[in-house]
Amino acid sequence: MTTTIELGGKTVNRLGYGAMRIVGDGVWGPPKDHDAAIRVLRRSVELGVTFIDTADSYGPFYSEDLIREALHDGSGYGDVVIATKGGFTRTGPNRWTAVGRAAYLRQCILMSLRRLGVERIDLWQLHRIDPETPREEQFGEIKAFVDEGLADQIGLSEVGVEDVQAAQAAGLRIASVQNRYNLGDRRAEELLDFCTREGIAFIPWAPVDAGTLARPGGPLEDVAKQHGGASTSQLALAWLLRRSPIMVPIPGTSSVAHLEDNMGAEGIELTDAEFQLLSDAA
Ligand SMILES: NC(=O)c1ccc[n+]([C@@H]2O[C@H](COP(=O)([O-])OP(=O)(O)OC[C@H]3O[C@@H](n4cnc5c(N)ncnc54)[C@H](OP(=O)(O)O)[C@@H]3O)[C@@H](O)[C@H]2O)c1
């Protein structure tokens, strides 16, 4: 199984880390334990993570600030790709509103550049397409980010095949999409197949949420027993990595123990029969 992918201008490990869980409850405010958040970020890189997903709206801003504090080496992030997002405003804990006006998107990327301490964002993702703003305005401004060298690559989030095609038709080269997808929620299957054919990285969020498949006595637990008591999170991630070579899961956690558990998924090779059993279980 291929363990790496070209993304954000670098060759990265396909098992990444999602930095949404290192901030306060409701993805709002600072983390309860600042030092623990820093430890999780540094441990992720020690364990081989080279793709970290964040967004300006995580906190807002705390996630990007913590990444810089934990991982910036004075000139940048070395081999590690930091993928961020913009276009989602926050009006309180667990509250999100898409704003895709060109001026706002430009402010998003300029402020992410400043916070992350880089001259170019490796992978900048539009967090949501704003239904209230013409798409041409959003896609046109984002294309300018690449043309001006503010972003190396562009991704979309929570989209359908038609959205990706519309962005491509507007002249955007889409390097990645990020949709909710996991063992228990396969609604993005058509998009995943499209991305696999097109060679677009697919970044599934909520990757360890296997829903009822992870229940005691469920199919994940059965397969886990065959793998020396692997955790259900590890199996959910191993299934994703096996599902497509363009899959880049970004499990999110605020805990070093859970991070270490998740990274253990790399050592799990599902048999064809196990992969099929889990694929058919949803
Ligand atoms: N594009 C979007 O719209 C969007 C939306 C949501 C998220 N995201 C991105 O996707 C990333 C992943 O999504 P997510 O964080 O919502 O879901 P997730 O990675 O599937 O699950 C995170 C939850 O599971 C727990 N967890 C993680 N590993 C575990 C383990 N080994 N054992 C037990 N519990 C574990 C975490 O709690 P603990 O902290 O206690 O470990 C956390 O509550 C986010 O961090 C973010 O970067 C993107």
From TrEMBL:
Entry keyword annotation includes Oxidoreductase: yes
Pfam families membership: Aldo_ket_red
GO cellular component terms attached to this protein's record: cytoplasm
Entry keyword rRNA-binding: no
Keywords associated with the record: Oxidoreductase
Domain NADP-dependent oxidoreductase: from-to ranges: 14-279
InterPro entries in UniProt: Aldo-Keto_reductase, NAD(P)_OxRdtase_dom_sf, NADP_OxRdtase_dom
MF terms in GO: oxidoreductase activity
Lineage: superkingdom: Bacteria
Gene3D superfamilies: NADP-dependent oxidoreductase domain
Protein name according to UniProt: Oxidoreductase
